[in-house]
Sequence to fold (478 residues):
Amino acid sequence: MSEKVITRFAPSPTGYLHIGGARTALFNWLYAKHTGGKMLLRIEDTDRARSTEGAILAILDGLRWLELDWDGEPVYQLTRAERHRGIAEQLLAEGNAYRCYATPEELQEMRERARAEGRAPGYDGNWRHRDPSEAPTGIEPAIRFKAPREGETVIEDRVQGRVTFANKDLDDLVILRSDGTPTYNLSVVVDDHDMDITHVIRGDDHLTNAARQTQIFKALGWKTPVYAHVPLIHGPDGAKLSKRHGALGVEAYRAMGYLPAALRNYLVRLGWSHGDAEIMSTEEMIEWFDLDAIGRSAARFDFVKLENLNGHYLRTTPDKEIVERLKSLVPELPDGAALAARIGEDGWRKLEQAMPGLKERAGTLVELLDNASFLFAKRPLTTDEMASRVLDEGGRETLATLLPRLEKVEPWTQEALEAAVRQFADDSGLKLGKVAQPLRASLTGRSISPGIFDVLAVLGRRESLARIGDQVHASKTA
RNA sequence: GCCCCCUUCGUCUAAUGGUCAGGACGUCAGGUUUUCAACCUGAAAACAGGGGUUCGAUCCCCCUAGGGGGCGCCA
Fold:
């Protein structure tokens, strides 16, 4: 019965689901899937001052967007406070905890003194042995766990290996605040036990917590879960991930135009590998993922590689799906409403038609959309610098002679257009590029675009001829 | 300050007590080409430093340096 693996993702809702949390969730999810187990979701909202409803929603949304599902209903830690309190009382009754009357000021002072004297700034255990009769009046005590003083606490970590802490370095932590609310380390132990969690996969910033939690598990006579502490993700400069370079919520990645499959693929390769495999399907990830293959060193976040991966997934995603994703993305963009109005039904149709050429050239959905902007541009087009240079006198003359030939093309298909333009280039003794570039500039306002015959076909006869005509006329009036 | 962890091309990583230290992204050079991409070919690019152990160390041990994490009545 207890053979089945149960992992959990346990974010605290004090902000969005950041990229490190997303990877932790992914690893928990993959391990659960790999072993045929479950992944539970627990919202660690015991810090009432900082937890927000919005953050909970953001985290749930982020997980859904990443397509990482969890088993059962999310457990809100706050709702279990009574149970946690009960265990604290039990620990107290069994002599594994004690009341501490130290005030915040006293603790502050103690820490400063310890630091000054070069000792670990932990609690000195003053109230561990003091008689309750000495308790000052008017002060509600906190309850502290009576941590072992001698010996060591050993964690057999699936990623970090055997990690040993001297018990003298681990102080008596508060398990129940003076206001009667449980603290993190107590809640985690009780919940992991009650939820039958078999594997705890989390960031290695929790490594020392694992030692403290192990002590509590032992005091309670409970079996500890298997631990796997994954190294953190750093910014490109090797320093802690800041908002500037990637500690963004996953919704920011969505807004930048990344695909969930690409982000998953990128994240799974940060700290974990399977031989030379780089691009892998979700099925392959599940099949191959294993705790033992997780590395022990921190990885730097690299947007360039993410974008490369995203480009790959863009190219292999069906056109219709990309259009759907764009439709939901556009309203969230700056000026999204206006953009959506400009695109319109007709624009979405053109977009899908032009998609094969567009997705080949983009790293993100946002870039793709920008590359596609010529599709919904209104005449007369504005031309960028490079396009203007192509549309010099010679370029416009070429267009002027080409225009009548194009007007005769029937039907207006890519094949017919290509044949006509190539024939024109031949007849004029011009290289195809000399014709294609002015054409491109007149049709898109840029020097870069999808294949020119695609552009012509998608834009349609009327619009294409009008845009070319605009340039020809400009040459006459100039 | 104390405790814990980490260190292979710029980045993500593989591998091994004896290898030309492999792959991917990026970079550079070619090819292809209507532009840009994509794609193909090729190149440059790493075992942090110092001691051991060993016939032989990137790999095992120690030290140093550098980086990271933790040290709350936060989670």
About this structure: The radius of gyration of chain A is 31 Å. The longest helix of chain A spans residues 336-359. Chain A has a mean pLDDT of 92. Residues 289 and 420 of chain A are 54 Å apart (CA to CA).
